[in-house]
Amino acid sequence: MADGVPGYPFPLADALSPPTEWARLRSADPVAAVRLPSGDEALLLTRYDDVRRVLSDPRCTRHSADAARATANEEGGVFGEQLTEDDLHQRWRGVILRAFSPKRVAAMRPRIEAMAEELVADMAKGGPPADLLASVGYPLPRWVICDQLGVPAPDYEKFAHWSDTMLNMTRYTQAEIDTAQAEFGAYFAAHIAAKRGDPGEDLISEFIRFTDDLDDRMSEAILIGTSQGLLVAGYETTASMIGKMVAVLLAEPGLWSRLCAEPGLVRTAVEEVLRFDANPGFGMPRYLSADVELADRVLPAGTTVVCSVGAANRDERAFPGADRIDPARTPNQHLAFGVGPHVCIGQTLAKVELCTVLEVLLRRFPALRLAEPVAALRVREGLVVGGLERVLVRW
């Protein structure tokens, strides 16, 4: 901070509490200059209305060669250019949206519940204390997304390192990032080739059928990039959220008992935990392709902004009692999955997984509690999506 520009992301007060900077910036400096892990400078948005407006504005794009780099990865890491902001991109999103339609996700729910029951039963057999993340948080979403992509079960374990490399901003060197991305890409190139020869009902086969029907056939690079993106987003983000959800609910006195007594609150409780998340990670970067008026000032074209959805979701202007968790909060127009043309495609599936895990845990462990104090919980440093190192529980 030698030049007066603070480093971003901000450190947390503890694993479950928001950075002190959020409230100060919302009040005094809602469009604040920050220094990113790459060393580049950007503007941080912390108010709900400003964040929602930028995420909804088509002039605020996800990718540009001129944008500030979020990470040390020269290609931008998970924020690098994968699909262009054009009609092709929108058509491709349409295909993925159909793949994650509410009807299709609803059909998946019985299998998700069965897997959650199996994982929780195995955790119970091992006895307390148990790491909920290792026992349930990671295995469930990994199984779900790999199953949907048609990835063979023996290959599941290969993705942990690749996923962590693509989502960590500070842990890996450029050479390590390049190696992991090359290995990840080579795996999916071979997987896609195998599915072309022997298609099934999985998403990869569905994407291949769509691209084969196009006059301007999708490039193999986009198929590979989409497969990688879905696996990383569908695995790591949901896994991290399962751990944070359980930790937050157990840390609030009386809340777990209330949910056991009122299981009808599970859906709204999940939405509230998503809003309340103090450790959602980096945020959503956008590049302004035109001048945009925001917070009584004009931001010029060429500016990179970072939308802090975590700070926006704690904005009292949008959520009365924002720093208090309310499992019955309705309505709850949080921004955890974004909004507008780039809203998270997999949010329906993620919510089903979160609700299912919570329902199973409430049924099986009405006396569940944290096995260590909140102060002992540790954040996974540098992770784009936020997360905890472990969540030890007893019952």
Automatic annotation (TrEMBL):
Coiled-coil segments, which residues? none
Q: Does the keyword Heme apply?
A: yes
SUPFAM superfamilies assigned: Cytochrome P450 (SSF48264)
**UniProt cross-references to InterPro entries, sorted A to Z:** Cyt_P450, Cyt_P450_B, Cyt_P450_CS, Cyt_P450_sf
| Alphabetized UniProt keyword annotations | Heme, Iron, Metal-binding, Monooxygenase, Oxidoreductase
User: Highest taxon of the source?
Assistant: Bacteria
| Family to which the UniProt record says this protein belongs | Belongs to the cytochrome P450 family.
Protein's name in the database: Cytochrome P450
